[in-house]
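Subject: sequence -> structure tokens, single chain

Hey, anyone have a minute? Need the predicted structure for the following. Not urgent.
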Amino acid sequence: MNNYPHPIIAREGWPFLAISLVLAAAATAWCATWSIPLWIIFLFVLQFFRDPARTIPQDADAVLSPADGRVIKVERAQDPYAQREAILVSVFMNVFNVHSNRSPVDGKVEKIQYFPGKFVNADLDKASTENERNAVVLTTRDGQTVTFVQVAGLIARRILCYIRVGDVLTRGQRYGFIRFGSRVDTYLPLSATVKVSIGDKVSATETILARLG
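Reply:
Had a minute. Here:
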């Protein structure tokens, strides 16, 4: 398992930052004017890979948002990973959101499933079942099941997950990263009370998506 103190910049971004910085600096030495687009790219990479610390709500029943972004779906649905009826809350991340993914609840990892797939727009319904994705099924301390799924997007090409079956996660713990635009689907027990609506902007760890019943 890989959990590290929150840096200012996610470690996943260090190689991209180094490359973009070297290219921008080299271009500046050659021609300052022509280097401007490369410095813009460097600034974009810098903001994309930011990884700020978050304040964790102290509510034992709270289900926290696993990602920054905008709520695009709240509905009853079939959880294909835990084979049950559930409440689905989907959060869409654009390229300007923080892309670190964090555990929404405390609990033990029961299953991790990775599926290769397509890279259609993550804002579309079919992205949940057709795109590349990585699902984590977790059991809370009181025996409830929460499933959270990293879904690749139109330009996302790498889903990173650092946990293993049997790991015990704490709410707000960083467990993965998706590069360059995507979404996270969270499947909740039917007894959960959802606290967000479609269109709401949410912050990973700090926004309460729902409360478990």
